[in-house]
Amino acid sequence: MTPEALATLHARAFTMPRPWSAQEFAGWLADPLAFLLVEGDAGFLLGRAVAGEAELLTVAVAPESRGRGLGQRLVSRFLYQARLRGAEVAFLEVAEDNAPARATYSRAGFAETGRRRGYYRTPEGRSVDALVLQRVLTDGAVNAPT
Ligand SMILES: CC(C)(COP(=O)(O)OP(=O)(O)OC[C@H]1O[C@@H](n2cnc3c(N)ncnc32)[C@H](O)[C@@H]1OP(=O)(O)O)[C@@H](O)C(=O)NCCC(=O)NCCS
After folding, report:
1. pLDDT band at residue 142, thresholds of 50, 70 and 90?
2. Whose CA is nearest to atom 22 of ligand 1?
3. In this predicted model, what pLDDT tens digit does every residue of 70-108 receive, in sequence order?
4. Among the CATH numbers 2.120.10.80, 3.40.630.30, 3.40.390.10, 2.60.40.10, which is that of 3-136?
5. Residue 24 in 3-state DSSP?
6. Whose CA is nearest to atom 1 of ligand 1?
7. How many helices (H) and strands (E) does the chain have?
8. Quick one: pLDDT at residue 140?
């Protein structure tokens, strides 16, 4: 996927936080520590791994392709790639009111380890907390996705 295609799909998936631009994606793709996983042109995940830790930077599935397990598959591929890059723990931030994402991460074994109060602001001006989720990768349960 090109930075333009990533930005187009990101804009279809996000209002809060604001979607990322093609230029921002180009910056991430130029980062040797970052890695992009795609599922055709229906979904993608951007991750980064350094110094034994991995971060899930963003994940987006096209609205018409949701509810079919693509999000789950992208997250399990992320965990495996993070492990291959030497990460022992993975973390991410998710908005407290993002039920589909929280369901996807909880199914992948992430647990809440922190909270950032009022971290996000909706387009209507409402503040939403960010939850910090973590997944230990050394429990032997991270395997190559089938
Ligand atoms: C989060 C996202 C990637 C999930 O993609 P997906 O392909 O639909 O995910 P899956 O089909 O693998 O699974 C979705 C899970 O969310 C659950 N879910 C979906 N809508 C839900 C809702 N409104 N409330 C609660 N759970 C919901 C599904 O039941 C499923 O959980 P289950 O596997 O326990 O049944 C997708 O919704 C998306 O792109 N959202 C917009 C971008 C975003 O929020 N990204 C994450 C930012 S942290």
Report:
1. confident
2. 100
3. 999 999 999 999 999 999 999 999 999 999 999 999 999
4. 3.40.630.30
5. helix
6. 101
7. 4, 6
8. 76
